[in-house]
Structure formats: structure tokens, C-alpha cells
From TrEMBL:
Pfam families in UniProt: GATase_6 (PF13522)
One Gene Ontology cellular component annotation held by this UniProt entry: cytosol
Protein name: Glutamine amidotransferase type-2 domain-containing protein
The Glutamine amidotransferase type-2 domain, residue ranges: 1-86
Annotated InterPro entries: ASN_synthetase/amidase, GATase_2_dom, Ntn_hydrolases_N
Record Gene3D superfamilies: Glutamine Phosphoribosylpyrophosphate, subunit 1, domain 1
Originating organism: marine sediment metagenome
PROSITE patterns on file: GATASE_TYPE_2 (PS51278)
Length: 86
């Protein structure tokens, strides 16, 4: 249904309570920015269509607070911001 939204990648996550999916036009972190993305415990998942302009500064702040990242994408930064400040 949303194939036209992104020709470069597709992904989904599903468990007993929720399912999320995406199509991607790769712009940032082309090689490892696959979505959906999750935190270290795999208990928070996200798909995101947008751009976080200050994600590198946010990532540096979060790394100093002990967060570990497995991609270079702005999407993953959102997960860790949620963990840290919500």
C-alpha cells in the first residue's frame, strides 16, 4: 500500500500487541539506517519519516549519559531521547 513512499528499503516489526512498518527513501545513514529501529533492550521500537537536524549533537550528549548506538541515523537518536527525557 505504501510502496510508492520509498524505493530504497522496507521493514516491519510485529508482536502480539502492535505491528509497524515502513518504506524508506534513504538520505541519512544509507547503509545501517534500516527501520524499524529499537533500543538496546528491544522494548522500544520506532519508524520515522523526517529529519532531525541536530541529531549529531543530541547523540553526543546521549553517549555521554551512557547510551549506546548501533546506527548513525537520526531515527535512533529519537529512541534514546525518549528514554532519557520522557
Amino acid at each position: 500500500m505504501i510502496k510508492h513512499r520509498g524505493p530504497d528499503d522496507k521493514g516491519y516489526y510485529s508482536d502480539k500487541d502492535v505491528s509497524i512498518g515502513m518504506r524508506r527513501l534513504s538520505i541519512i545513514d544509507i547503509n545501517t539506517g534500516h527501520q524499524p529501529q529499537h533500543n538496546e533492550n528491544e522494548d522500544i521500537w520506532i519508524v520515522f519519516n523526517g529529519e532531525i537536524y541536530n541529531f549529531k549533537a543530541l547523540k553526543e550528549t546521549l553517549e555521554l549519559k551512557g547510551h549506546n548506538f548501533y546506527t548513525g541515523s537520526d531515527t535512533e537518536v529519537i529512541i534514546h531521547c525518549y528514554e532519557e527525557w520522557v
